Amino acid sequence: xxKFIDRPRYxxxxxxxxxxxxxxxxxxxxxxxxAGCGGNIANALHGAAGYLGSGYCAGLALxxxxxxxxxxxxxxxxxxxxxxxxxxxxxxxxxxxxxxGCMVDIIGDDAVAVxxxxxxxxxxxxxxxxxxxxxxSYKGYDIVLSKLFTDFVEKDPVKDxxxxxxxxxxxxxxxxxxxxxxxxxxxxxxxxxxxxxxxGEGETLDHLKYAGAASLNILVSDVYGIEPAQIFEKIHGVxxxxxxxxxxxxxxxxxxxxxxxxxxxxxxxxxxxxxxxxARYYSYIERLADVYNDLDFQRYSVVVADANYAxxxxxxxxxxxxxxxxxxVITDILTEEEQLLLTARFQDFTSGLQPKVVFDxxxxxVSKHFNASWPRNNNDRYFDHFSPAFVLGSxxxxxxxxxxxxxxxxxxxxxxxxxxxxxGYVGYQGALRLVEDIFGRLVGSR
Amino acid sequence: xxxIKDKAPPVREDRLRACNAYGGSxxxxxxxxxxxxxxxIKRSFSQTQGCQLNLSLAILNTIRDSVVIVHGPVGCGGxxxxxxxxxxxxxxLRDHNARGLLWVNTNMGESExxxxxxxxxxxxxxxxxxxxRPSAIIIVNSCVPAIIGDDIDSVVERVQSEIQAKIVPVHxxxxxxxxxxxxxxxxxxxxxxxxxxxxxxxxxxxxxxKNQLEELQEKYRISRTVNVLNVSSMSRVDEYExxxxxxxxxxxxxxxxxxxHPEDFLKATEAALNVSxxxxxDDYFVExxxxxxxxxxxxxxxxxxxxYTNRWILDIGKFFGVEEAAECFIAQETKLLxxxxxxxxxxxxxxxxxxxxxxxxxxxxxxxxxxLGFEVVGMRAYHYDQFxxxxxxxxxxxxxxPFNVATGQPFEQANLIVNLKxxxxxxxxxxxxxxxxxxxxxxxxxxxxNIFLGYTGVFEFVRRLAxxxxxxxxxxxxxxxxxxxxxxxWYEKDxxxxxxxxxx
Lengths: 446, 504
Known about the structure:
- Helix content of chain A is about 45%, strand content about 15%.
- By secondary structure, chain A is α/β, with parallel strands linked by helices.
- Chain A folds into 3 domains: about 15-150, Rossmann fold, CATH 3.40.50; about 160-280, Rossmann fold (3-Layer(aba) Sandwich); about 285-440, Rossmann fold, CATH 3.40.50.1980.
- In chain A, the strands form 3 sheets. A 5-stranded parallel sheet of chain A has the order 11-10-9-12-13, with helices on both faces. In chain A, strands 6-5-7-8 form a 4-stranded parallel sheet, sandwiched between helices. Chain A has a 3-stranded parallel sheet with strand order 2-3-4, sandwiched between helices.
- The termini of chain A are far apart.
- By secondary structure, chain B is of the alpha/beta class.
- The longest helix of chain B is centred in the middle third of the chain and has 26 residues, at about 325-350.
- Strand 1 of chain A pairs antiparallel with strand 4 of chain B.
């Protein structure tokens, strides 16, 4: 049995599926669900995601069968077939993907079979069951990718040693996905690899279609995209490696070494790229030498984020910025096994710091965990305050930051108080943006 | 009207024979509406829209000192994530200490679909009470618990005695209706059953405690008090304008239901009159207040534009027997306004405009834009029902101007814009980006940050229109550099090609 959630920071399976499809180039989602599912998702994928906008054919333009009571009683397959046919007439896309809501899954509509009928007629129509009760957004991402890897990616027995795929970074749920993918792509390009990210700048569906020729799948997540990666390996014979999302010098160097080792990248090249990137990174970080040391810009910090961002941000704060991330709250729904995997990611910081890591989906509980980990002032004359402090979280954590008197930056979904375009926070380059944004808050009143 | 004994209200397809698919002339629409033949029109191609749960949340999320429990899978109500931040600011415009939007999702998964989700709901209610101590806990019921047979009313009945907060179950399951506006009835139904004084005895008991003078004073106060029913898509400044207009007639206002405190509804019966600014928003509530508490109401029009604002004030003035004072006030206000508008008229003259939004508001807005010198070349409304008949009949050239009934459906709008070639699009907030991508200037209306109602609203609207027209470069650039997702030949077809009247 699942438990209620106080302000969940994700949508349902259908929401994640629509987000994934929305982020793919010229892909048209067709929703087979009650009318409001798409409308609700459209708002959440815009106003809570850095004002992403409706995209090419999402928002209120999402084709949807809008089934209601009568269809629930008599079945909605006929209506879906009509909707697919008319969508093919009206909407100009390269791939059409039917995703389902709770109601049609519960009444047993076979939406995938209806989609397959069109596929057999030579139409680029796919389908998957994504009823919201199956799980949250991440589940939707995994289902859509698995389906595409199974049915859309072409089999290619010949592997290209210079081509890799990268995923596990969930579009829109990671509000900075587009910038992040671009950074990682460029970075891996520097050590000699072409990268398919499927959702990245300038990529087309062909990058996905011919992804079977890659020699490795790089997963930047301990928990997301794992199932699709396993399916990919089984069908296309491409192995995968988990190299967690890297932010900053410490994290990115580890990332490059992990990937380089698996790919057998020439050591000289690897060292050269790391040295160059680090040199550029520190040529900018160096500017902060004065302000950091004159104004004492070390901070206590709390990180409230998803499973991908939380370890990456904490490591960046501790090992790059020399901050004190005392508490990390990971807000995703995770199995015990996944929690163990993630906990291990906080054990080997070069700074020697070990933040307290808690797994909790409930927004109100963030402040409870904070109170449990830092003593309260009982009117003592001398008291070791949690100050100066900084909170990295989502826009839902602004109230908590205000309550402890700390500035706050929204990084993890939902992000409703910032506009995000091509900004990314990963790698060396993204860390510079993050430094600008964090320290920008600290000098904001000057 | 009395549906209050039922757990849930009837949907609008049944109660009002409302429709959300039509394309054709205004006069034909009125004719069909009066014959009751609009029901059952559907689309063979459709795009997504809001459901009654989404729209219910638009209202319920504003209620102060409350916790909303969304009973359903984890994504239901997810759009609240996009308004949680700003909601607190809007609540604090009414109460500086307001906590903003708090909600809990019961997170129904596969196991709940099989075994039922009543336990999750019960635990969520107890959590909301313990954690937040709110005045009200509002439960919005989604599709899944409805189809698997969760009896939320029984859960509420059992748990209510254990907690302080008033529990308000709202039956707004999305799949029950295509008419998003059914949400208004669902929300008011929950409020009427749970937040209004339940017994006449309550009221009598209160009066009994007073001496004769106090009783008279109380009676007088009530005789001069009007409940003004607001909507979630208007602003605090809109409310100030309505207060100004009615205070001029020496009336006091209770503003409900949006951004109200749950306890404010206890006073809803202490008014001489209920005034709506939008009939299709409020008829369910005011009809029930009439039946249950014998409070009369005025539903006829909306204070948008000079003509309808005049009518709105005059109707209320007539009710209180201060027609003359109302006329005097109107004359003075319109004179001042006319003078302020004069410099703008040349700028607007002959400009073609398409309008989108709620049925009543679109028609009032068309009247206003015509009055300002624009040529209204097309109208789009989320849905259509009998409440708009009177106003739509008054539209000039009603046989020529196309009227499109569509909840969203931006593909029909895109087609209309290409073919009608408007110079401007004026649309309800949410979805205006599509018109922007077609390169034309857009003026968004019905937002919680702008004033649009009353005389002040007219002037602010005009000011904003002039501003938007002054430099439309942003959208022009968008038009040149972005593409809508439809095939070119879609624009060659009739905009209403996918509206299927076969089932009528």
